[in-house]
Design brief:
Layout: E1 2-4, H1 5-14, H2 19-27, H3 31-37, E2 42-44, E3 47-50, E4 53-54, E5 61-63, H4 68-77
Antiparallel strand pairs: 1-5, 2-3, 4-5
Helix pairs in contact: 1-4, 2-3, 2-4
Length: 83
Amino acid sequence: MNITFEELRRIKHALPSGSVAKIAQELNIDEQTVRNYFGAHQYKDGQVVEFHLEPGPNGGIVHIEDPTILNRALEILGEPSLN
């Protein structure tokens, strides 16, 4: 799945206070992992596993392998999930 970096950041900044902790708890992952996800860095066991940013308008295009965190954030915002 591809999304602009600008849109990824918009979603993060639109989340209500405490949402990062809520997502982390629901998915049984570290809060920093959720924060890093919205910075276009995806980690597993402390290592970057996916980071693909193509230069372009709106901050470039971010390729996301696993949209689980993103889709949970969109649910919190009441927006449709992305596939």
